[in-house]
Amino acid sequence: MNLSPRLLRLAFLLAALAVAANAGTSLLSLNPPYIQAGGPDVTLSISGSGFVPGGTVNLGYLSLATTYIGSTKISAVVPASFSALSGYHQVFVRNPDGSASSTLYFDIQPVLTSVAPNSAPAGSPTTPVTVTGIGFVNGVSLSFVTASASTPINTGYVSSTRITAFINASLLTVPGTATIRVDDAAYPVSTTLPFTITPYTPSPAT
User: Fold this and answer.
1) Distance of CA 195 to the CA centre of its chain
2) Rg, the chain, Cα only
3) Which tens digit of pLDDT belongs to each residue from 114-131?
4) Nearest by Cα to 175 from 199, 158, 195, 194
5) Interior/surface letters 21-60, b for 16+ CB within 10 angstroms, e for the rest
6) pTM above 0.90, yes or no
7) Distance between CA 44 and CA 41 in Å, rounded?
8) If we measure between CA atoms, which residue out of 163, 178, 159 comes closest to residue 130?
9) What's 72's DSSP letter?
10) What's the CA gap between 129 and 146, in Å, rounded?
């Protein structure tokens, strides 16, 4: 079937508009931008431009079906199974024609639940502690935070719920309060655990 030049121009124009719309898909923000590991399913709202019906959200290794709200907003459900472990994951939208949007990053933060022991006397030697929590991965590190400084401490990965750490003697010289937190710029609002440096009490003379 031969098309008239007018219909051909119209067909080319429509095709070009469709390609331009998809090629221009851009992500602006995620809500929420991060979650804590071990939580329930979460609905992720994505704001941007150039969204079209039928796209999928690619989050890490997942491809998630989307709810199309409009050309500037879509949403997808992040399953609880994906947030079992912490991580920093790329997010982009794959359009029905195969083109991809710009990218953002979605943060799954580890959760700290307890530290044992949670105190040490001033003047103690380097002190080992056990930190328990949710969503640990190999490579997660911790910092010891006082009023004057935040200092990385040596850590060892044991499991997704346990880390061993060593608080250096140089951090235990002055009585006071401190916190232990995840040492990673990707986790700006991580949970913290209190740690107390108690006054030194000499042993009674015998």
Assistant:
1) 25
2) 25
3) 999 999 999 999 999 999
4) 199
5) bbeebbbeebeeebbbbbeeebebebbbebbbeebbbbbe
6) no
7) 10
8) 163
9) T
10) 17
